[in-house]
Design a protein that fits this description.
There is one protein chain. This protein starts with a strand and ends in a 12-residue tail after the last strand. It is 16% helix and 41% strand. It contains two helices and eight strands, in the order E-H-E-E-E-E-H-E-E-E. The protein has helices at 16-26, 74-83, and strands at residues 3-12, 30-35, 38-42, 48-52, 66-71, 87-94, 100-105, 111-116. Strand 2 and strand 3 form a beta hairpin. By secondary structure, it is an alpha+beta fold. The protein has one domain (3-100, 111-124): 2,3-Dihydroxybiphenyl 1,2-Dioxygenase, domain 1, CATH 3.10.180.
Length: 128
């Protein structure tokens, strides 16, 4: 598996409004999407930070912040990890823009993810 970087970070919190304010006003990240219990912020390089509030039903597995590792071939990376006994949570998720991701439980008991983002700059670097 060829990890190219950490490209996504998500957190589920009971302090949703405070985290949105912190991310916008202290970290200075630009909001891409703001909805009740769901916010997406974009870093200058295109990487994302997402905040899930207590009313978000899709991320109840998150007990701490979750990072996702960028890989070139998500299906191959997942298959290789499963062969090594890594437990995945649910199916591979696919977005209309070509991005895909899948969450797994690591040996430390926390949830992480692998993601494929075909237009990410890491895929365009020489030698990749």
């Amino acid at each position: 598996m060829d990890v190219k970087g950490v490209v996504w970070l998500g957190t589920r919190t009971a302090h949703f409004d405070e985290m949105v304010t912190f991310t916008r006003e202290i970290l200075g990240l630009r909001p891409r999407l703001l909805k009740p219990d769901f916010a997406v912020f974009e870093c200058p390089d295109g990487d994302l930070f997402e905040i899930f509030g207590p009313g978000d039903a899709d991320h109840t597995f998150m007990s701490c912040p979750v990072g996702e590792f960028l890989v070139g071939d998500l299906e191959a990376a997942r298959a290789a990890m499963e062969e090594r006994g890594i437990e995945f949570i649910g199916p591979v998720h696919k977005a209309a823009d070509g991005n895909s991701w899948s969450h797994f439980r690591a040996p430390d008991g926390h949830v992480y993810g692998i993601t494929s983002h075909p237009s990410h700059p890491s895929h365009k670097r020489a030698g990749d």
